Amino acid sequence: MSLRHAEFLLLETFTGIRRNAFMSLAAVSTITVSLLLLGGLRLTIANLTQMAETLAGRFEMRVFLHTHLPTAQRDSLWKEISALPGVTGCRLVSKEEAWPQFRRRLQGAVDLTDLEGENPLPDSFVVRVADLTRMGAVADQIRRLRGVDDVLDTHEEAERVASLTRAVRAGGTLGVVLLVAVAAIIVGNTIRLTVYARRKEIGIMQLVGATNACVQTPFVLEGTLHGLVGALLALLLLGAGYTYLHDQIRQSLPFLELLPPSTSLVLSQSSILLGVGAGLGLLTSALSVHRYLRT
């Protein structure tokens, strides 16, 4: 393609947008709303995933050691547990550290005066695993180690949280796919109306000898430009809207751990929104014009 030809196609593209400003505005508005919903859904999924992972990170097991276990054996046991597959952390809680915490927890509920000066608690380890679904299996492995007296784990609750995390991701993926499909239908119908309003223009271009590619390219460029402009507007609205909603939710429900609004958070959606916007504009324009080129 020569530079002169490219200049002609770009000129035709912007001329078409200027002459059909109302239809172009309708196409851009439709794409903006569709992509705003898509971006909002993706941010919602990101926050739900963050909450589920934060909740999952709080699950841990407590490994109680035999009383009066030698320090050397305790340290060796720590190394064994840390080396187990799936274990991401193993922290020692000495009985000297655990006793004040234990007393504070039971203060006023249980009389501990008979134990003054004595510390009946054993040393213990706080263990975390990467995969919550394997917490029960890891706990069984630890129980078989020499020097371990008992293991308290919450593998049933952990498995429920792991299932919730998987459900959030699967449901979010399905929701994104459905929303993209609905957006494609809505945007496609809007651009189809835009092309239909200019069907006479297409016919005239064919009568004067323009090739199908020459007729189709300006419309495809218009659709792509509509998609990119709509995506940029959606990103701006998404950033402002998320910042506002984040502040409102944090004031009303401060215990919710939401992703903080930031430029990087919004920009993380840019590749998806720009790609989907440009793709929707390009494909729907190409298909709509192709329909009239065949008739």
Helix content: over 70%
Our measurement of the CA-to-CA distance between the termini, rounded to an integer number of angstroms, reads 27 Å
Q: In one word, what is the shape?
A: elongated
Widest sheet, order of strands: 2-3-1-4
Q: Report the radius of gyration as a whole number of Å.
A: 31 Å
Structural class: alpha+beta
Which ranges are low-confidence, i.e. pLDDT below 50, for 5 or more consecutive residues? none
Largest sheet: 4 strands, antiparallel
In round numbers, the mean pLDDT is 77
Order of helices and strands: HHEHEHEHEHHHHH
Beta-strand share of residues? 5-15%
Provide the number of structural domains: 2
Number of strands: 4
Number of helices: 10
How would you characterize this protein structure?
With 295 residues, this protein is an alpha+beta fold. It folds into 2 domains: 3-55 and 161-294, no CATH class; 60-153, 2-Layer Sandwich (Alpha-Beta Plaits). It is built from 10 helices and 4 strands; from the N terminus they run ααβαβαβαβααααα. The protein has helices spanning 3-19, 21-57, 71-82, 95-106, 135-143, 155-197, 199-207, 212-252, 263-267, 270-294; strands at residues 61-65, 87-93, 124-129, 148-152. Strands 2-3-1-4 form a 4-stranded antiparallel beta sheet. Helix 1 crosses helix 8, helix 2 (21-57) runs antiparallel to helix 6 and helix 6 (155-197) packs parallel to helix 10. The radius of gyration is 31 Å and the shape is elongated. The two termini are 27 Å apart. The mean pLDDT is 77.
